[in-house]
Amino acid sequence: MIGESHLPLTTSHFWWSVIGRGSSDREVRGEIVGRHALGLSKVYASDKVAITVLEDWCKGCEICVEVCTKNCLAMNALGIVEVVDLEACNKCLLCDLLCPDFAICVE
Ligand code: SF4
Ligand code: SF4
Q1: Which ligand is nearest to the CA of 10?
Q2: Which residues contact ligand 1 via a Cβ below 6 A?
Q3: Does residue 1 fall inside a structural domain?
Q4: pLDDT exceeding 90 applies to what percent of the chain?
Q5: Within a domain: residue 5?
Q6: Atom 2 in ligand 1: which residue has the minimum CA distance?
Q7: Taking the model in full, what pTM does it have?
Q8: In whole angstroms, what is the distance from residue 79 CA to residue 90 CA?
Q9: In this structure, is residue 3 part of a structural domain?
Q10: Is the distance from the beta carbon of residue 38 to the nearest atom of ligand 2 less than 6 Å?
């Protein structure tokens, strides 16, 4: 489509574009768990946003939780980030940009 960039927006988008997530991921609405070459991932998806957490890469630093002004994210009992309010996400990309381990991707 003219005017639509297909270049990755962030470093994590680059890695995700290299890694790939499987075509079925993008069609899912809700929460799914999958596994690809780099480990366990969880995709939280709605019609307007998809947030993928690469759980095996998340070190539980909570940076993403702290920077999210919409309180979309929280740590679970295992010390891994999870999406608790997907509808509140405004796709600001702060969590994606500031995660030091490229463990979260917002699309
Ligand atoms: S910033 Fe990255 S590594 Fe830290 S808790 Fe969030 S997803 Fe995990
Ligand atoms: S993209 Fe912004 S609003 Fe959405 S979860 Fe990340 S920090 Fe929160």
Answers
A1: 2
A2: 58-64, 81, 99, 101, 103-104
A3: no
A4: 56
A5: no
A6: 99
A7: 0.79
A8: 24
A9: no
A10: no
Asked if the structure places residue 99 within a domain, the reply is: yes
Give strand pairing partners of 68: none
Q: Cβ neighbours of residue 63 under 8 Å, at least 6 residues apart?
A: 95, 98, 99, 100
**pLDDT value at 4 more than 60:** no
The domain total for the chain is 1
Taken in order 20, 92, 67, 77, is the CA torsion positive or negative? negative
The per-residue pLDDT for range 26-62, each reduced to its tens digit, is 444 556 766 666 778 888 999 899 999 999 999 999 9
Cα-Cα end-to-end distance for the chain = 17
| Amino acid identity at 59 | K
| CATH code (residue 39) | 3.30.70.20
Residues 98 and 63: beta-carbon distance below 8 Å: yes
Q: For residue 105, what are its two tokens?
A: 């991707």
> What pLDDT, on a 0 to 100 scale, did the predictor assign at position 41?
85
Three-state DSSP state, 17: helix
